[in-house]
Design a protein that fits this description.
about 400 residues; alpha/beta; N-utilizing Substance Protein B Homolog, Chain A; Alpha-Beta Plaits; Rossmann fold; 3 domains; 16 helices; 11 strands; about 40% helix; globular
Length: about 400
C-alpha cells in the first residue's frame, strides 16, 4: 500500500501542480527499499506514458467532472491489471483503499469491475498523447513517419552511454557487461551510474541521436566553437573529441546549469573550456570575437523526448509554442555577428514540431541570403529520442 500511495502522490503532483516527476521521485523514493523503488518508478513513468490510453478504457463510464484523483487511481489500477498482470482482487483491494471517502471508493470499485478487458482505441488515445499533440504531429508527418513516432512515444527508451576516450577504451569496460552500439556509444542491461567507472568519468549518458549531431558540424582540430545553450554539455563534449577545449565556449542562461557543465567537464578530463552565463540572444554584445562553428541546440517544446520524459505532456501547452518559436527566431538571428564568413552553424532541437524546425530554418535562409543550407533531417529512433538538425553555412 505504501508504494502505491507514494506513486499516487507523485502522479498527482506531476499532473495537478505541473511538477517534474523525476525530481519528486528523487525526493520520495529514499524511504523505500530498492525493489520497491523500482516498482514505483515503473508505475509512475508508465502511467504517465500511457495515461490517455488507460483513461480511454473507462471514458464512456465516467463524466468529465470525475476528479483528477479518481482518474489517477483508475489509471494506476488498470496499468497494474493489464500491463503488470496483477490479480484483479489485489488491484481492486489496493486501489479502492486509496480513495478519499466512501463515495469515491464505491465509484472506483464499480468502474474497475466494469473494466475487465483492454481496448486499444484509435485516435489520440492510441498514441498515448493529449489530443492537441496528436493532431499537431499527425498533420505534419506522413503515415509511415507518424507510426514510427507513435511507436517511439509508447516505447520505454533505451539508456545509452557515450564512451569517453580521454579516460578509457572499450577494453576497460568489458567486465561491466556492455553491448557496443558504435565506436562511441554502448548500452547495458545494468544501471551503470553507480559504478566506479562512471564516477571516474569513463562514460556519460547520451542518446544515440543526440550523440550523432556533432558530426554535421564538419569540425577540424583547429576550429573555434561556441555552444550557445550548452547544458547539460554532452553535445559540447562530443565536439571536444576533435577540437581543443581551449577553443570552445560553453554558454547557458542558467548559472546553476553552467556549474553542472563545469563539474562534468572536470570529471571527464576536459580542461580549458571558456564558461559563459548569458542569455544567448545577448552574446553578440558580450563577445568580441567570431567562431568557425556555432552549435545552437535551441530551447523547444520537447515533443521528441516525451517517450523518455512523459511528464512533459502535462507541462507543455499549445499556447506556449508561439513564445518558444519567437525565442528560437531571436536566437538564430543573433548568431550572425558571431559566425565567421565560411563558418557553419548547427541548429538542433528535440522537438517534432516543424514550426520550430524546418520553418525556422526556411525563414532564416529567406531573410539571410548569404547563408546556404547544407543539410537537415529529423532523426526518429523508436528506442531513443527524436532530434531535428540543420546545418547552414555563411558564405
Amino acid at each position: 500500500m505504501k508504494q502505491r500511495q507514494i506513486a499516487f502522490n507523485i502522479l498527482y503532483k506531476t499532473i495537478a501542480d505541473e511538477s517534474y516527476s523525476n525530481l519528486l521521485m528523487r525526493k520520495e523514493l529514499n524511504q523505500l527499499e530498492p525493489m520497491q523503488r523500482a516498482f514505483v518508478t515503473n508505475l509512475v513513468n508508465n502511467v504517465l506514458r500511457k495515461y490517455e490510453l488507460l483513461e480511454y478504457q473507462y471514458r464512456e463510464e465516467v463524466s468529465d467532472k470525475t476528479s483528477l484523483a479518481n482518474r489517477i487511481i483508475l489509471n494506476m489500477a488498470l496499468y497494474e491489471r493489464f500491463y503488470l498482470k496483477e490479480k484483479d482482487y489485489v488491484v481492486n483491494n489496493e486501489y479502492v483503499d486509496l480513495a478519499e471517502n466512501r463515495y469515491d471508493r464505491s465509484f472506483i470499485n464499480a468502474i474497475l469491475r466494469k473494466t475487465d478487458s483492454f481496448t486499444d482505441g484509435e485516435g489520440a488515445t492510441a498514441a498515448c498523447l493529449p489530443e492537441w499533440i496528436y493532431r499537431l504531429i499527425k498533420a505534419q508527418y506522413d503515415e509511415e513517419s507518424f507510426e514510427r513516432i507513435v511507436e517511439m512515444y509508447q516505447t520505454v527508451p533505451t539508456v545509452y552511454y557515450r564512451l569517453n576516450r580521454l579516460r578509457c577504451g572499450y577494453e576497460d569496460l568489458k567486465h561491466l557487461d556492455i553491448r557496443i552500439i558504435s565506436e562511441d556509444s554502448f548500452t547495458s542491461e545494468n544501471n551503470l551510474l553507480k559504478t566506479k567507472e562512471y564516477e571516474k568519468g569513463y562514460f556519460y549518458i547520451q542518446d544515440l541521436n543526440s550523440a550523432s549531431l556533432y558530426r554535421h558540424l564538419q569540425l577540424q582540430k583547429e576550429d573555434s566553437l561556441l555552444d550557445v545553450c550548452s547544458a547539460p554539455g554532452s553535445k559540447l563534449f562530443n565536439c571536444l573529441d576533435i577540437i581543443d577545449p581551449e577553443n570552445s565556449y560553453a554558454n547557458d542562461v542558467n548559472e546553476n546549469r553552467v556549474g553542472l557543465i563545469r563539474k562534468m567537464a572536470e570529471k571527464l578530463g576536459y580542461k580549458g573550456i571558456h564558461y559563459l552565463n548569458h542569455d544567448g540572444r545577448e552574446l553578440k554584445n558580450v563577445l568580441d570575437r567570431q567562431f568557425d562553428k556555432i552549435l545552437l541546440d535551441a530551447p523547444c517544446s520537447g515533443l521528441g523526448v516525451i517517450g523518455r520524459k512523459p511528464d512533459l505532456k502535462f507541462h507543455i501547452k499549445p499556447e506556449s509554442l508561439d513564445e518558444l518559436q519567437l525565442l528560437q527566431k531571436q536566437l538564430l538571428d543573433s548568431m550572425d555577428p558571431l559566425l565567421k564568413d565560411g563558418g557553419i552553424l548547427l541548429y538542433s532541437t528535440c522537438t517534432l514540431n516543424k514550426k520550430e524546425n524546418e520553418k525556422q530554418i526556411s525563414r532564416f535562409l529567406k531573410e539571410n541570403p548569404n547563408y546556404r543550407l547544407l543539410e537537415q533531417e529529423t532523426l526518429i529512433n523508436a528506442s531513443g529520442d527524436a532530434f531535428y538538425y540543420a546545418t547552414i553555412k555563411k558564405e
